[in-house]
Amino acid sequence: MKLIPAPLALAILACVAPAAHAEVAIDVIGGSEVSFEGLLQTDGYWYDNDVANLDADGSDGDDTDFGLRRAELVLKGKGPGNIDWVLGYDASGDGKFLDANVKYKIGGDKKHYVQVGQFKQPNSMEELSSTKNNDFISKAMITNTFAVGRRLGASYNIGSDDWQVSASYFGRELTRNRAHGSGFGLRGGWAPINEKGNVFYIGASYANYDVDGDTIRWRARPDADLSNRLIDTGSSGILNADRTSTIGLESFWVHGPFKLQAEYMMNSVDRYDTGFASQPGSDFDSSGGYISGVWNVTGETWTNKGGVPGTSGAENPASGMWQLGLRYDTLDLDDGIVQGGQMDTWTVGVNYYWRSNFKFMVDYVKVDSERRGVDDSPNIIEARAQFFW
């Protein structure tokens, strides 16, 4: 897609605007301390195609995609009393609601609370991580494919600095004509080593929800958020689907300026047995995972925030924070007569956090995919400019 004037203007703004402080305070309204946050991201992708044309614009010969990835605007409130609330909207693309919920802290404990509204469900460490601090421009394939993101529902959460457990029941997404299907999620984790710059965390999650319409489709892009997809279970979807469930295993280790992070997911689609040979009822199973390493060249480190890595800002904002990252990512969508394909990617990334509100990212992605006997191994260069407050 072509870079339209609005994203271009936002990119220029990100380069020339003076540094702001995160979370701009507005006022105290009805006993609630109201603040305003925002996140603007604009992306560019350059494709070295092999077989398929990754350019989402179609066969225009440019082999590129540019566009506004996110334009998130968020109001937050603390109080009155033990109540926190948030209302967020992403104005990019067709627009969608982000977090829109109320949280009640039991006994005033921020780690023991109930939450009602739309929020990220308790699964996938990477999905729960803050978007502005992603290690790579695209989240891993399993995260984009299997993770349950924001849904309307209710959750109960309890924990301490070293452990946490969450349980939720959810339905559809708040924005019309997006994700739907009622279900539940569970997530728990423990950090036997837990101090700034020295963390070891392990956890697991489980999500299970109804497949509305009795068909479900799994497909994945080659770690490039604006590109066409390379592996796909088919436009007709997986037929006779009743429910789908995902087991997730997750861990990260921090030692000073180094971080290792990994997740593995196993998904199953439970299918009706129709009794017809043309419509088999056997379940469809798929899986994937990633492992990544990041080095803060300028010496900063991470903390543990409820089972997700907390990124520290630059120790010297004027000179900024540099990161180097490497990730191996894999996804297998082949099972029985459903041949969705397999894909492996290697991503090498460089990130630069400048002052308190800017981030610039460049990734190189090497792809190796196979679907129904056709091998496709393109290369992709990606870039992102980000402004946040």
UniProtKB/TrEMBL annotation:
Record-linked Pfam families: Porin_O_P (PF07396)
Protein origin, superkingdom: Bacteria
Keywords tagged on the record: Signal
Keyword Membrane: no
Signal sequence segment: 1-22
PROSITE patterns according to UniProt: PROKAR_LIPOPROTEIN
Protein name (database record): Porin
